[in-house]
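Re: the multi-chain job from yesterday

Posting the exact lines I submitted so nobody has to dig through the queue logs.
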Amino acid sequence: MTSLDDVFDFLGLYMAAHNIEASVAYSVNLAVEEFFTNMVKYSPENHNDIIISLSMESHGLTVSLVDSDVEPFDVTQTGDVDTAKLLHERKVGGLGIHLVKQMVDSVSYEYVNRHSKITFTKNLGK
Amino acid sequence: MFNIYVNETGNVALSGRFDASQVESATKVLNPIQKSVYVDFKDLDYISSAGLGILIMTQKRLAETGNSLTLINVNKMIRDIFHIARFDLIFKIE
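And the result, structure tokens for all chains:
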């Protein structure tokens, strides 16, 4: 995957084929976009495709994104955003990952042989 | 497909998918705004943190002169995103 349009087309086809409910689809789209753009942002010199895989399992959807030949960046260790701050104190950085953590059911990170792999799960009907 | 424009009443309308690839087009429309306006979400299907970021930067800028964005016709899924981000405390949503 090299562009967000490609990513959304791919996700849309998969979720339509599996009759995924709209609110679940929204969470999956958001999580993939936030992780995908994070991978691109932290490895701007890397022109390798990011590989996105989805699988339907008994609990729901498992989605993984793999970026190759990159330095480690563990998104699960990013700090929480203080969403209670007032307007003039609010910063945008970190918001995407904060949203994702609230909207999916689990997020894990692996780094092996210069491959970064983010896996998340989203239960159906939630 | 995403579209953002200032409509005939001087308010802003959004439609489609407001993702990270739309930052430039949205900034071009929102940056010239200097007064309080409504932002119509009626035809907006999706917004990610990139879209939220542009809206909050605009809200911050307008607040310096006592102005603000008011969001209207926000669907439930997008309203939930605003709630999780606690942006519902920062934007008036009608």
